[in-house]
Amino acid sequence: MKKEKLNGIYIPMVTPFNADESINFNGIKECTDFLADNGVTGVIPAGSTGEMIALTPEEQMAVNEATVKAADGRIKVVCSTGAYRTKDVVEMSIAAQAAGADGVMAVTPWYMAPNENELLKHYETIRKAIDIPIMVYHNPYYSTCLMTDEFMAKLYNEGFIDAVKERQADVYRQQDLRYLTDDGFAIFYGYDVCPVESCACWADGWVCGTGNLFPKENSEVFHLAKERKMEEAMKAHFEKIRPYLPLFTKPTKDGLPTPWLQIIKEGLKLRGVDAGYCRKPVISELPTDVMDSLKAVLKEYGYLN
Length: 305
Fold this sequence. Notes:
Keywords: Lyase. Belongs to the DapA family. This is Dihydrodipicolinate synthase family protein. By secondary structure, the chain is α/β, with parallel strands linked by helices. The protein is built from 13 helices and eight strands. Strands 1-2-3-4-5-6-7-8 form an eight-stranded parallel β-barrel, surrounded by five helices. The longest helix has 15 residues, at 57-71. The mean pLDDT is 95.
């Protein structure tokens, strides 16, 4: 059976937690509904933005299943099944397929970064376990695992993966990957700042974390770019995306990195969506200066009085 090629704009969805750090399943439904109602192609639950590293494999499977159920066929769901142990990835991927997922996204194993022979076997093992599309999440900044274009193409050409979320966000890599593969390989731009440029350079899709908070704006820009309406897309980017980007890129007044995850969750709550809390060690509360900036941006966009 030929697998459907993945494409479009996907949001790596937050995982809402209750104040006691238990999973907030009602919040998962609210977040899924919010994104489905605002024009996204699909969602990726339990990924980096979904605090994957704070979830047990059992919890990750529960979040994935709840999201598939909440989506109810309205949007695609590519379940994040990444883990260090191949055994865990296989178990979660089988569960995702059984739940009705449209695909899985498996980040490369982290910390003790595997070599190419080990990576090949890792993804070959996942491929043998499931029939739905497999997206490799290439994020060497978090995983410490850096793949070459040639090796990534080998994973696809030998039939072990179907797509990539490329977090290095280098349009030349996209060009090179397309040259080394074929049109069946789904290339997803994996960062938030240059969707128009990326769509002009071989990207089939966009995985956009800030789209949790601004899904309508990001979807509009993406679709204009994919329709090759580049002047309109660039104008829309400067009007609908560029104004909020400093919120996610500037450090706090104390010089700490921007608390992007908390900004998304608190921003969603200000927009009436129960995105819940973070799990420690991430502190849910925003510094006063960041909260003030968040409220100002939401007011500018007309989402807060």
